[in-house]
Structure formats: structure tokens, C-alpha cells
Amino acid sequence: MGTAGQQGFTLIELMIAVALIGVLATVAIPQYQGHVARAQITRVVSETAALRPQAESCLLEGKTNVTFSDNEASASTCLIGATLSNLLGKTGQSEQPPTGYPQIVLADNETRITATFGNTAATALANATVVWVRNASGAWRCQSTVAKRYETSACPAPPAQ
């Protein structure tokens, strides 16, 4: 009579497969989280960069008070058409701006657009900021407080000291 062939996998083969999957996951998950953080930074940098022309327009009109709501708009207030971002939290302790919007401070000598990452952003970005600064001559520069490994070329982190 013939001998019966092996059916299925042995326990050791299954254990080796599970171990390999575990090793791959150990390497892949942190890499994925890093890519997510960099993508979120890139998104916030571009969302806040889009507000620079509006800030310039407000300065040209002599308006230094900012609002994000049509209800609060007035002749002396500049209405900024910012979109609510689910990645942003509150900036500082002030009531303005509401959660999800960047803080915009308009002044002739230095204008700032500050975005603070909130709870829905990647854990590595908790409370990090992206800040666009306009100097008196009208030149804009971006700086961030994110870790060096997550920085983007459009908005570098300050050099390590």
C-alpha cells in the first residue's frame, strides 16, 4: 500500500512564517509612521503658504485684525479664507483662532502665520509648529519645530545647537 503524504504545514513552519511577519512589521510600521508625519507636515506647510497672499492683501489695505468668519467681518477686519484643517490644534492659550485654524498676526514690521499641530496629527508632531514669517521688506520664510528627520525642504527645522 502507498504511504499517506503530508497534509498542510507543520507547526515549526507556521511559527517561522509568523516570526518573519513580525520582523517585517517591526521594520515597516515606524517607516510608515515617518512617511505619514512628513506628508502631514507638507500638507500644513502648503495650507499655510496659501494664506500668504491674503495676508499681503490685508496689509496693503491697512487691516491688521483677522477673522475667519463672515459673521465677525467688518470694515476694519480682514476676512481670511482659511479652510478648517483637522491636523491643527489651538495655538497658545488665546481664544482666537478657533481650533483648526492657524494663528495670523498682521504687522508691517513682522507678520506671522503660525500653525500648531493638534491631537489628530501624527504622534511625532504633537504640539510642533510651522511658522511663516514676513519681514518688513516683504520676504517670507518658513521655520518649524518638527524633528529634523521629518522636516521638509520648504520649511526646515532650525539647526541643532
TrEMBL record:
The gene is fimA. It comes from the Bacteria. The chain crosses the membrane at residues 12-32. NCBIfam families: IV_pilin_GFxxxE (TIGR02532). InterPro entries: Bac_GSPG_pilin, N_methyl_site, Pilin, Pilin-like. Belongs to the N-Me-Phe pilin family. Gene3D superfamilies: Glycoprotein, Type 4 Pilin. SUPFAM superfamilies: Pili subunits. One of its GO terms (biological process) is protein secretion by the type II secretion system. GO terms for cellular component: pilus; type II protein secretion system complex. Keywords: Fimbrium, Membrane, Methylation, Transmembrane, Transmembrane helix. The keyword Membrane applies. This is Fimbrial protein. It holds the Pfam family N_methyl.
